[in-house]
Every structure is written in structure tokens, then in C-alpha cells.
């Protein structure tokens, strides 16, 4: 049986991967997917902790996270559509009008 | 007995009486959502929103007894009630100035109203959550609606870009907060503040420390503390100005209240960690916010950086983890509402009369064109610098005294020095208004609502600055409520 | 005694009314009348309170409301009503009343008439907050408030560039003093844990000598700025750019005397430290003498009187430093009356001559303006110290006291007395008599001022004549506040400490009764000497400027270097200009470079560049790009986490 620490470590790894994904990906959609990855990493952590605690409350939290992730993705995609319509581009490198 | 009856008998019925304000806000939001489909009159929708909020504010005054309800997920005490009351009142002040602004920009959407109401509902939830779950839900409800609000500027690319950046960074923040919650849950097995309070009695556990520190990071991100502030200038600059005002004042203050409640009620024994952590974030915010603001050419962006700096001043109070620090934090966050909302509403009225630009250059000679508005702006700027007898001074003074009493000298010194630095850009606005001749002869026209809001808040800034006793007493009482609540449940 | 709250708030209400309705409804002359009524009410109330205190010798400490709590200490708005504050309050309100009445005439036709009276009322309110305060915080509030009002009033005619500059200068110089003052308050709070005078006095005995000295010196630093003593005196002469009633009220009678009042108010603190008293004495003496020399050669009528104000304030400080606190306060009172008279007289002249300031271009207007001339003469005689005018009874005791206590101080004060008599009569002869140098156009229109200007002159002149004979009353009246043996609010150990500090003046005996003092000084050698000095000064002025037996120009040439030194005001302005204006300019350039170029650009570009460097590794990132933002955040998180997890 795999100890729960491994799952937590995996979730941590996924979390960092997600962050790095946000940093290195150039496509805005890929960037959005990376943030979803981070949220899913949290889900793994919750399930792992429930496994350890023999509880279900953490898994309830997972549902909330899933819902929120969906809402966030919907808003994000909407924004990407709007940006694409104006710029005809989804390259992060071009989204730099606001700075300073 | 039916299953429903069994359930009710087992769990008890939630105490809906204390939830009336939230219910009114929710119903208003839904009503506005529906009405917006059928009713063409914009004034009516705006009036409906304001009436709903006024009812909610009024219903709060009728609540005489606090309670914990929704099976331990929701707390109504004087702390949450007081903050909710201020949030609702200041949302009203933001909303009454929205219509004329978006109409003259030709970017009217009915969505503004119910989105703001949902954001407000989220904020009301986070200030009255005794539990990380309800806190998280409230936080996300307010965040996601805020992303949309920032992007709701018709045919304006920058608005979308700002919203997208806000979304990505806010999403990362959400992930960090939920990971922090997971770590804390993993150790304590609960989301309830009181349970966490009882389980975490020492700081030795690395998982809890990591969880708490990540929570600090996530909350700092939402409160735009450096170095997690990157969304703030972009989102604030690109959003419609009354929305910026709403986010900079109402949303932020709710976050401060939530931070205070979580720190005091869930982690009082880890205060060494979090007071030090917030001190570092506060110092970084004060330094970066003020110095970068110096370089801005655009007043709106300057105010965004100034709002980062103010987060620093307010969070600095947490470096003194005792009653004095908490009182200072509550007092400063309440009075910060006056300055921030007043400043941004002024700016929205100002933009409307110009070419939708808000560079320093545009402020030239405002004192000649509209002396009274210039005077109000002067009061706001003085208050943000912290010149007596404005509230800004009293707020900083309270934080300063709290820091001194806890021997956090270095942070107190940074507070004073950065306040002096901040005079550089705030006074620049004043100088442009008073020391130059007007460049054009455009008439400066204001709606009655704008006059009322800006004037009312400016008077409040002065009056409370001269007579802070009432607000100071309120802050004191809320602090004692908070400290007494910690770990009681 | 509850009615005392009327005193400060009546002018405040007047200020609010004029501020709200001044331009819309009241205009001219109603706003002036409202202001006069406001200040007259508080004058009446303060006189009633004064009589009450004079009868009983009690003191009252009223807390009006608690403002804010710092730890255990409640800062409150309060009224401390004892002989000292009663006297000062009466001086402020009574002199203000007459100056307000005069101003209704002086400001006639000015388009900012309501604004002027709003500012004046605000000033009186702030000044009363200062005088009535029972703690250092409220004192500081009033202190800053009068500074603000003075700044607004100096720059009242802001379209005049010189006025705006003078306002700025007064603002900057006063900040120097205020910083010292604030530091003094902070140090006092740290030391005593309270800022109420009475509680501070109670705790004096147990505090280290060095700390008390530091507190007293820092507070005195504030007084030096506010009362325009050397070396922070340069703002006052330039402040004469404001309207003349302002000069009379703020820059002669009341605000500049606030420093003197503050030192007297905190007498036990100052008396506990020899060094502090010596400093007060030395600064006062030097100011008294140097300012008098500067006044000798000026040609601007208002500036001459301004230098005389500096010099007279120096006398008051010298008196306090000598331990003669009651004499100092009496001189303050008498100076407020006769100096207001002199300023209002010069204001009357200015109205007649359409704001011509140069005394060398005046002359022979005495006949056309008999009331102004007569009252001005009385004021000048009082300033010169000629009996039976009040100046004699208040200034002579200081010089005589100095003779017995400190010869060095005596010499300078004595010399100053000669110079004072000379310069004020030089002004008098040049302005009102002497040859015909006046522009013929102006000459035709010279006429006496209207009654609302001459009546205050007459009243003040009468006071100048009469007040001196109440010397004994004033000295006895002040005893419960300034004589440790009579001070009810001091514990015995502090009484001993204070009276030891004042021991330098114990052997001095000054006749309290006015008549016996007059008799004494007309018979003793010292009295005759001082009197003869004053008369010599007047005679010299008469010879030089009226009958022109000695040509002033020749004298000037003869003593060229000294003349130049005096004319250029001992080069104080030049030195300050070189050090502060020019030096500040250089310094600000350096600071700008460091601040703007190095720090700001460094931070902004640096975080940009930093992420460019890291971008080479983790994909191209830059400021404005989300990737850059998140990367920097990640670095922040890593640092933050490692700070707590690994570096604990």
C-alpha cells in the first residue's frame, strides 16, 4: 500500500509544475490549463489527507474546488475569446500593454 | 417521520434570522439579474440595487443577537456585522456613481449591478466565516465576479488584458490558498477555526508551518501585498474607475477583516510566525508601493500603487499581535474605505469630464476650474499622506503606536519614512491642481451623486480625523469581541 | 466655570459661519461684523473668568472631551484656567477684538474680505486652543494651527509674489522649530508617560537632570522658531507682506508671543534646569540686541516695527532666563498693547499713503492725521521706555533685574534700550514730521482714517497710558502660576526644586507698586541711567532726522562696515540663502539622483532586468507579462517559505 505522504508529495510536485507551466507557457489557453492543474494538485492532497485521517470532509472540499475551477475556466475562456477577437492572437508575449 | 424530518431533527434548522442581510443581497442580485432582461430603464435597475442594499443595511441594524449557524459554517457577531454594514454602505456609494460613468463611456451593461452584488455577497461571507470552507467559497465568489467586473469594459482591449492577468494570478492565489488549507486540514483534520485553534498549540510541525505560510502568501495575494501584488496595478488601471474604487476599498477591507479573523481565531498560538510574516510583507509593500508610485505618470495607476502601499500600512499592524495592533488594523481599514473610495470616485468624475485620461498633466489648474472638488481631492491626498487632522494620520498613528508598543521599531521606521516618500507623489497631484493654470477651458460637470459621494467622504475624512473617538471605540470593541471569540466554540 | 468653553469656540463658530456663508450671504461688511462679535463674546467671557481667578486665585482644569487614548494616557481637549492662561487669554481676545474692529476698516473694498475674517477667526480659535490647553498635545495642535493661519494670512495677497514667498519662508523656518518641539513632546511623553502639564510638574522631581534639560531645550527650540528668535528670526520681517492687521495681531501681539507664553507655562520644567534657563537668557539677550541693531537702518515702516518686535521678544525671553517670569509675562502683556498700537498706527498711515512703505519717502503727514500721530507717539514712547507709559513699567524692571543678576546680559539689554529709543523715533520723525519728501499727488489725499480705525487706536493708546499703574496687580495676580511658593498644584519636593532653579533671581528686589517703582527709578542711579539712555536715543533721533544737525548719510559712511552689517541684517539671510537655499538645491539634486535614478529606476528596471535574466532559463519573461509576474511571485513564495521552514 502506498503511504499517503507519497500522494502529498505528488500533489506538491503537480502544484509546482502548474506554477512553472504558468510561467513558461506562451499560449494563454495552456496557461489557463496550468492553473487548473494547480487546483487539481490540491484535490489530490485533500484526498490523500482524508485517506490518512479516515475522514470525508476533505473530499467535500474537493467538490467545491472542482466547481470553482470550472467557474474560473469559464470566465478565463470567455476573456480569452474577447482578447482573441480584438487581437487575433493568443500569445502571452503580446499581452503586455499594461506595465510600469 | 420522513427523511427530511429526520434530517431536520438531527441537524436543527439553520437560524435564518441572522442571515436576512445576506438573503436580501442574494434576492436583490437575482431580481436585478431577471429585471435586467425585461426592464429597459437603467435608472430603475440602479435604484432597485440601491434599495436592496439599503434594506440589507437596515436589516443588519435590527439583528440584536449573534449566532453561529449553517451547521457551524457561518458566524454572525458584532465583528462581522460591523464590517458587513460598512461593506454594504460603501457598495451603495460606489453603485450610485456607476451609471453616469458607464453611460458617458457608452459601455453600459446591466451585468455590472448583479455582479457587484454577488461580489458583495462573497465578501459578506468571508467576513463572517468561522470556517475555512465558507471562507474559501466566499473568497472565490468575490474573486471570480471581480475578474468579470474588471473585464466589463466594452471594446476596450486593456480591460480584457487586465482582467486576464488578474484571473491568472488570482487563480494561482486560489490554488495556493487551497493548498494551504489542505496542509492545515491534513494536520488538524478540521476546517473549523476553533478546532484548528485547539489542535495547533505549538509551532513545531513543519506541515502546519508550511500551511500557515502558504495561507499568508495566498491572503497576501488577495490583499495585494508585495511581492504578490502584480495583478493590482494592471487590474486597477484597466477596470472601469468606479469598479476600481469598489475593489480597492470594499473588497480589500473585507480581506483585511478576514485575515484578522483567521489569524486571531485560528492561529493565535502561531503569532510569532504570522506577525513576522506579515511584517515582512508589509515592509515590502510599503517600500515598493511607495517608490514605484513615485514613477507613475498616470494618477489611476499611481493610486493603484498607493493602494498597495496602504495594504502595507494596514498589514503592518499585524506585526504587533495584540489588542493594540488589531484595533489599529480595524480602525485603519475602516477609515481607508473613506479615502480609497473617495479618491477613485473623484477620479471617475474627473475622467468623465476629460478625454478619459487621468495623467498628472490633466490635473493642471483644476483648482481654478472647480475649487471645491480640488479641495476634496486635497483632503484625500493629505489623508493618504497622513497629515493631521485627517483620518489618514489617525490610522497611521494607531499603527505606529502599536508597533512601538511591541518594539517593532524597524517597521515603524519604515512606515514613517515611506509615508514621507509618499508625500512626493500625493503632493504632485495637489501641486498640479493648485499651481498651474488650466490648459483648456472645458467645463467641469458633475452629477449630484458624484458631488454627494466625494463631498460626503471628504467631510468624513476630516470629521473622523478630528474626532476619531467613535470609530476608535468601535475598533476597540470589535477587537475584544474577536479576542474573546478565539477558541471558544 | 463651565462657561469657559465659550472662549475658544465662539471664534470657531464665527469661522464656520463665515466659511460657509461668507461669500454667498454675508459678504462685506457682515462677515467682518460676525467675526468681531465672535471674538468680542470670547473677550467678555475671558474677562469674566479673569475676574473670577483674580478674586480667588484658584485654578480650574476642565476636560471637554477625550480625544484619543495612548496606552494609559488620555489626550483630551481641555481648558486649564489659572492666572497665567487667564492673562494670556485676555490679552489675546481683547487685543484681537480691537484689531478685528480696525480690520473692518482696513480691509474695506478687498475682494477677499470674507476670507480674511474667516482666517482671522480661525487664528484666534487656534491661539486660544494654545493658551487654554492643559497638555502638550493640544498646545502643539494650537501651535501648528496658528502657524497654518499665519501662513494663510501672510500669503493672503497671494497674487503678490513676495507675499507668496514670505509665506513659504515662514512655513519652512517654522517647521524647523516645530520638529524640535515635536521631539521635545515625544521625549516628554517617553519620560513622564503623560503630557498634562500638572502631571508632568508632579513627576519632575524624580527625573534625570540631563533628560529635563533635553526636553526643555527641545521645547525651547520650538519657541525660538515661533517667536522668531535668533537664529530662526528671518521669517518675521518678511512676514510683513501680509495685511497690517495681521502683522499687528499675529506677528506682534499674540502668536509670536506664544513661545514666551509656553516657556512661562512650563516654568517648572525650565526652572529645573540651569542650562535651559541660561540658554533662554542668552538667546533672548542676543536677539534683543541684534534685532535692535537691524532695526536701526531699515527703511520699510513695517519691517522696522517687526525688528522691534523681535527685540522686545528677546527682552521677554531674557527676563524668563533671568528667572523673572512674572516680569516677562507683564512685558508680554504691555508689549501686546503698545505694539498692536504701533502696527495699527502704521496701518493707518499705509491706508492714507496708499501702501507706500518706504519711510524715506514719507514726511509731514502728522498735521493731516492728528489722531494717528498722537497715538503713535504714545506707542513709541512706551516702546522707548519713558514713564508713565506701560513700556517703562514692564521693560525697566527687566534691565534693572539683569543689572543685579548678570552684567553681560545687562550691558546688551541696556544697549538695546538705547537703540530701541533711537530707531522708533527715527521712524516717528521720518514718517510724521521732518521735511517734505512726500509725493505731491499722495500729499493731497492724506487724511485721517475713519472712526472704526481710529477708535481702536485711541482705546489701545489709553490702555498704554493706564496699564502701567496696574503693575502691582499683575505681578500679584500671576503669583499662583509663576511663584513656586504660591503654586497650589506643585508638590513640596518640586516646589523646592523649582525655587532652587529660580534662586538666581531671589536677591533681586523690584518695587511691585508702580508709584514707588517710578519714584525709585527717578532717584536711584541705575533708574536715572536707563531713563537717560532712552532720552539720549530719542534726542539723537531728533537731532539727526528732525532738525538735521547731523547728516545720517555721513554717519553711515563713517561707520561703513557696521552700517553695512546692520543694513544687511548681519548677513543672516545671505548665509541662510547660501546654506539652505543653495545647499538645499545641491542636496536635493544629489537626493534626486540617488532617489530617482538609483533607487527608483533601480527597483523598477532591476525587477525588470532580474526577470529578463531568469527568463533566459525559464522562457522569456518581462515586466508586463504574466509569466514574469508569476515567476516573481514564485520566487517570493520560495523565499518566504524557506525563511520560516529552514531559517527558524
What report would you give on this structure?
The complex is a heterotrimer of chains A (100), B (489) and C (648). Chain A is mostly helical and 100 residues long. Chain A is built from three helices and no strands. The N and C termini of chain A lie far apart (53 Å). In chain A, 78% of the residues lie in helices and 0% in strands. Chain A has one domain (4-95): Helix Hairpins (Orthogonal Bundle). In chain A, 38% of the residues are buried. The mean pLDDT of chain A is 89. Chain B is mainly alpha-helical and 489 residues long. Chain B is built from 21 helices and two strands. A two-stranded antiparallel sheet of chain B has the order 1-2. In chain B, helix 7 packs antiparallel against helix 12. With 648 residues, chain C is mostly helical. Chain C has helices at 6-56, 83-106, 113-132, 136-154, 161-192, 197-203, 209-226, 235-238, 244-253, 258-265, 267-271, 274-296, 301-321, 325-352, 370-384, 390-405, 407-432, 440-445, 451-466, 471-482, 492-501, 514-523, 525-546, 552-558, 560-567, 572-618, 626-645, and strands at 60-70, 73-81. In chain C, helix 12 runs parallel beside helix 17 (407-432). Chain C is globular and about 95 Å long. A two-stranded antiparallel ribbon of chain C has the order 1-2. Classes of the chains: A mainly alpha (100), B mainly alpha (489), C mainly alpha (648). The A-C interface holds A 19-20, 22-26, 31, 92-93, 95-100 and C 604, 618-627, 630-631, 634.
Task: Give structural attributes.
heterotrimer, A: 100 residues, mainly alpha, Helix Hairpins, 3 helices, elongated, C: mainly alpha, two-stranded antiparallel sheet, 27 helices, 2 strands, 3% strand
Amino acid at each position: 500500500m502506498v503511504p499517503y505522504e507519497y500522494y502529498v508529495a505528488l500533489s506538491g510536485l503537480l502544484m509546482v509544475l502548474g506554477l512553472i507551466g504558468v510561467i513558461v507557457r506562451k499560449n494563454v489557453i495552456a496557461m489557463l490549463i496550468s492553473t487548473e492543474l494547480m487546483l487539481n494538485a490540491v484535490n489530490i492532497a485533500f484526498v490523500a489527507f482524508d485517506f490518512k485521517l479516515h475522514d470525508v470532509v476533505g473530499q467535500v472540499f474537493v467538490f467545491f474546488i472542482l466547481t470553482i475551477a470550472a467557474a474560473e475556466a469559464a470566465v478565463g475562456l470567455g476573456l480569452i475569446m474577447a482578447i482573441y477577437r480584438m487581437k487575433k492572437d493568443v500569445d502571452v508575449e503580446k499581452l503586455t500593454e499594461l506595465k510600469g | 417521520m420522513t427523511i427530511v424530518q429526520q434530517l431536520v431533527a438531527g441537524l436543527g434548522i439553520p437560524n435564518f434570522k441572522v442571515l436576512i442581510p445576506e438573503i436580501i443581497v442574494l434576492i436583490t442580485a437575482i431580481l436585478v439579474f431577471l429585471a435586467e432582461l425585461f426592464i429597459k430603464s437603467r435608472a430603475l435597475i440602479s435604484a432597485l440595487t440601491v434599495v436592496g442594499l439599503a434594506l440589507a443595511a437596515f436589516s443588519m441594524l435590527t439583528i440584536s443577537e449573534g449566532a453561529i449557524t449553517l451547521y457551524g459554517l457561518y458566524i454572525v457577531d458584532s465583528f462581522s456585522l460591523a464590517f458587513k454594514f460598512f461593506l454594504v454602505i460603501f457598495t451603495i456609494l460606489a453603485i450610485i456613481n456607476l451609471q453616469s460613468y458607464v453611460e458617458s463611456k457608452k459601455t453600459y451593461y446591466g451585468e455590472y449591478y448583479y455582479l457587484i452584488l454577488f461580489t458583495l455577497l462573497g465578501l459578506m461571507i468571508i467576513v463572517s466565516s468561522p470556517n475555512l470552507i465558507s471562507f474559501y467559497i466566499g473568497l472565490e465568489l468575490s474573486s471570480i465576479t471581480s475578474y468579470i467586473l474588471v473585464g466589463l469594459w466594452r471594446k476596450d482591449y486593456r480591460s480584457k488584458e487586465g482582467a486576464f492577468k488578474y484571473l491568472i494570478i488570482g487563480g494561482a492565489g486560489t490554488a495556493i490558498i487551497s493548498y494551504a488549507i489542505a496542509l492545515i486540514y491534513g494536520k488538524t483534520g478540521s476546517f473549523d477555526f476553533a478546532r484548528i485553534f485547539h489542535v495547533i498549540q505549538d509551532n513545531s510541525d513543519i506541515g502546519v508551518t508550511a500551511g500557515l505560510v502558504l495561507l499568508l502568501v495566498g491572503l497576501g495575494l488577495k490583499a495585494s501585498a508585495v511581492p504578490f501584488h502584480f495583478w493590482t496595478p494592471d487590474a486597477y488601471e484597466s477596470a472601469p474607475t468606479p469598479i476600481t474604487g469598489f475593489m480597492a476599498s470594499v473588497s480589500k477591507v473585507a480581506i483585511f477583516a478576514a485575515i484578522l479573523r483567521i489569524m486571531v481565531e485560528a492561529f493565535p498560538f502561531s503569532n510569532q510566525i504570522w506577525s513576522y510574516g506579515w511584517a515582512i510583507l508589509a515592509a515590502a509593500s510599503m517600500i515598493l508601493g511607495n517608490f514605484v508610485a513615485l514613477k507613475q505618470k498616470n494618477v489611476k495607476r499611481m493610486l493603484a500603487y498607493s493602494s498597495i502601499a496602504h495594504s502595507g500600512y494596514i498589514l503592518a499592524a499585524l506585526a504587533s499581535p495584540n489588542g493594540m495592533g488589531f484595533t489599529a488594523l480595524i480602525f485603519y481599514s475602516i477609515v481607508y474605505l473613506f479615502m480609497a473610495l473617495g479618491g477613485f470616485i473623484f477620479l471617475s468624475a474627473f475622467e468623465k469630464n476629460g478625454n478619459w485620461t487621468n495623467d498628472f498633466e490633466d490635473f493642471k489648474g483644476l483648482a481654478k476650474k472647480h475649487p471645491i472638488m480640488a479641495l476634496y481631492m486635497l483632503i484625500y491626498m493629505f489623508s493618504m499622506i497622513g497629515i493631521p487632522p485627517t483620518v489618514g494620520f489617525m490610522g497611521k498613528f494607531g499603527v505606529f503606536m502599536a508597533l512601538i508598543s511591541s518594539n517593532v521599531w524597524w517597521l515603524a521606521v519604515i512606515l514613517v519614512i515611506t509615508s514621507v516618500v509618499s508625500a512626493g507623489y500625493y503632493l504632485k497631484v495637489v501641486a498640479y491642481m493648485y499651481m498651474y493654470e488650466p490648459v483648456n477651458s472645458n467645463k467641469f460637470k458633475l452629477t449630484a451623486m458624484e458631488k454627494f459621494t466625494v463631498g460626503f467622504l471628504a467631510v468624513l475624512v476630516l470629521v473622523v480625523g478630528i474626532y476619531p473617538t467613535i470609530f476608535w471605540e468601535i475598533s476597540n470593541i470589535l477587537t475584544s469581541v474577536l479576542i474573546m471569540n478565539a477558541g471558544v466554540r | 466655570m463651565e462657561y469657559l468653553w465659550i472662549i475658544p469656540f465662539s471664534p470657531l463658530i464665527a469661522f464656520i459661519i463665515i466659511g460657509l456663508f461668507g461669500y454667498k450671504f454675508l459678504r462685506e461688511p457682515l462677515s467682518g461684523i460676525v467675526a468681531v462679535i465672535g471674538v468680542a463674546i470670547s473677550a467678555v467671557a475671558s474677562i469674566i473668568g479673569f475676574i473670577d481667578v483674580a478674586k480667588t486665585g484658584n485654578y480650574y482644569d476642565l476636560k471637554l472631551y477625550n480625544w484619543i487614548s495612548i496606552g494609559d494616557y488620555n489626550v483630551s481637549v481641555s481648558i486649564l484656567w489659572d492666572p497665567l492662561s487667564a492673562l494670556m487669554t485676555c490679552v489675546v481676545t481683547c487685543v484681537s477684538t480691537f484689531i478685528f474692529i480696525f480690520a473692518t476698516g482696513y480691509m474695506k473694498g478687498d475682494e477677499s474680505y470674507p476670507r480674511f475674517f474667516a482666517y482671522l477667526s480661525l487664528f484666534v480659535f487656534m491661539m486660544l486652543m494654545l493658551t487654554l490647553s492643559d497638555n502638550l498635545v493640544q498646545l502643539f495642535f494650537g501651535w501648528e494651527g496658528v502657524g497654518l493661519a499665519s501662513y494663510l494670512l501672510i500669503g493672503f495677497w497671494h497674487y503678490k509674489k513676495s507675499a507668496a514667498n514670505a509665506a513659504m519662508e515662514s512655513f519652512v523656518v517654522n517647521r524647523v522649530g516645530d520638529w524640535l518641539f515635536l521631539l521635545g513632546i515625544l521625549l516628554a511623553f517617553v519620560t513622564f508617560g503623560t503630557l498634562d502639564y500638572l502631571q508632568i510638574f508632579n513627576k519632575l522631581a524624580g527625573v534625570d537632570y540631563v533628560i529635563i534639560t533635553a526636553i526643555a531645550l527641545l521645547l525651547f527650540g520650538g519657541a525660538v522658531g515661533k517667536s522668531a528668535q535668533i537664529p530662526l528670526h528671518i521669517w518675521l520681517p518678511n512676514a510683513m507682506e501680509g495685511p497690517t492687521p495681521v502683522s499687528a495681531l499675529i506677528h506682534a501681539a499674540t502668536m509670536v508671543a506664544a513661545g514666551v507664553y509656553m516657556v512661562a507655562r512650563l516654568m517648572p520644567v525650565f526652572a529645573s534646569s540651569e542650562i535651559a534657563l541660561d540658554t533662554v537668557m542668552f538667546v533672548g539677550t542676543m536677539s534683543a540686541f541684534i534685532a535692535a541693531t537691524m532695526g536701526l537702518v531699515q527703511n520699510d515702516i513695517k519691517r522696522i516695527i517687526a525688528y522691534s518686535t523681535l527685540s522686545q521678544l528677546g527682552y521677554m525671553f531674557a527676563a524668563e532666563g533671568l528667572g523673572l517670569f512674572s516680569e516677562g509675562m507683564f512685558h508680554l502683556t504691555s508689549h501686546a498693547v503698545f505694539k498692536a498700537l504701533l502696527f495699527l498706527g502704521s496701518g493707518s498711515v499705509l491706508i492714507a499713503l496708499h501702501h507706500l512703505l518706504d519711510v524715506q519717502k514719507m514726511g509731514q503727514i502728522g498735521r493731516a492725521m492728528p489722531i494717528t500721530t498722537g497715538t503713535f507717539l504714545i506707542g513709541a514712547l512706551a516702546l522707548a521706555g519713558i514713564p508713565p507709559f506701560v513700556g517703562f513699567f514692564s521693560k525697566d524692571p527687566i534691565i534693572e533685574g539683569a543689572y543685579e543678576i548678570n552684567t553681560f546680559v545687562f550691558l546688551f539689554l541696556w544697549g538695546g534700550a538705547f537703540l530701541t529709543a533711537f530707531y522708533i523715533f527715527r521712524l516717528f520723525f521720518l514718517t510724521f514730521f521732518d521735511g517734505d519728501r512726500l509725493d505731491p499727488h499722495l500729499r493731497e489725499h492724506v487724511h485721517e482714517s475713519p472712526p472704526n480705525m481710529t477708535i481702536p487706536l485711541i482705546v489701545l493708546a489709553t490702555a498704554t497710558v493706564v496699564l502701567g499703574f496696574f503693575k502691582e496687580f499683575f505681578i500679584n495676580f500671576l503669583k499662583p502660576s509663576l511663584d513656586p511658593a504660591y503654586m497650589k498644584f506643585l508638590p513640596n519636593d518640586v516646589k523646592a526644586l523649582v525655587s532652587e532653579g529660580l534662586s538666581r533671581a531671589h536677591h533681586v528686589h523690584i518695587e511691585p507698586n508702580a508709584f514707588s517703582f517710578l519714584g525709585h527709578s527717578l532717584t536711584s542711579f541705575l533708574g536715572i541711567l536707563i531713563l537717560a539712555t532712552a532720552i539720549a536715543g530719542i534726542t539723537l533721533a531728533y537731532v539727526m532726522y528732525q532738525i538735521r544737525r547731523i547728516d545720517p548719510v555721513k554717519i553711515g559712511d563713517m561707520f561703513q562696515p557696521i552700517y553695512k552689517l546692520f543694513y544687511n541684517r548681519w548677513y543672516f539671510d545671505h548665509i541662510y540663502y547660501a546654506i539652505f537655499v543653495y545647499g538645499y538645491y545641491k542636496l536635493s539634486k544629489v537626493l534626486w539622483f540617488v532617489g530617482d535614478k538609483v533607487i527608483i529606476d533601480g527597483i523598477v528596471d532591476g525587477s525588470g532586468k532580474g526577470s529578463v535574466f531568469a527568463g533566459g532559463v525559464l522562457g522569456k519573461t518581462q515586466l508586463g507579462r504574466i509569466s514574469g509576474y508569476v515567476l516573481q511571485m514564485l520566487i517570493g513564495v520560495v523565499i518566504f517559505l524557506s525563511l520560516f521552514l529552514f531559517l527558524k
